[in-house]
Amino acid sequence: MAHSGKRPSVHAIPPDTELARLIQQSQLDFELDFFAAILQNAPNYIEVLRSQAKNLALKGLHAESLQIDERWVSLRPADPLAYYNLACSYAVLKQSEQAIRTLRKAVEHGYRDFRHIREDRDFDSIRKDPRFRALLREFENR
Questions:
Q1: Tell me: the pLDDT tens digits for 23-44?
Q2: CA 128 to chain CA centroid, nearest Å
Q3: Quick check: pTM over 0.90?
Q4: Which of 18, 54, 111, 137 has its CA 20 to 30 A from that of 4?
Q5: CA distance 25 to 64
Q6: How far apart (Å, rounded) are the C-alpha atoms in residues 128 and 106?
Q7: H/E element holding 6?
Q8: pLDDT digits (tens, 9 = 90+) for 73-93
């Protein structure tokens, strides 16, 4: 039988099938499901944890993203990026005390992109906090 080269119409796919669900799913939702499945089998897979936390935050699921970031820090307690992302999660959730304390740990562990810190919208809730500005001044002058 000759192949016409045409794809089957999306409308020809029964709406109650897994294929129909996947076609309608956004890339972000696909990645959330995909990474969740990986983490069920490999809960300490750092690269997947990092991607999952980012995707959860993009989806607006900040409390869930915070949980992933906390796990990442517990697995990599010397990783400045893990602390940075955790600080972002705290700040987005308006937990300013934890955000500033965790951002300090990120910088103490070597995070040095101060321009990014100053521009990162995740820190909008703490940007005017004198402790935030003092932290940046303290480390930028070192």
A1: 666 889 999 999 999 999 999 9
A2: 24
A3: no
A4: 18
A5: 20
A6: 19
A7: none
A8: 999 999 999 999 999 999 999
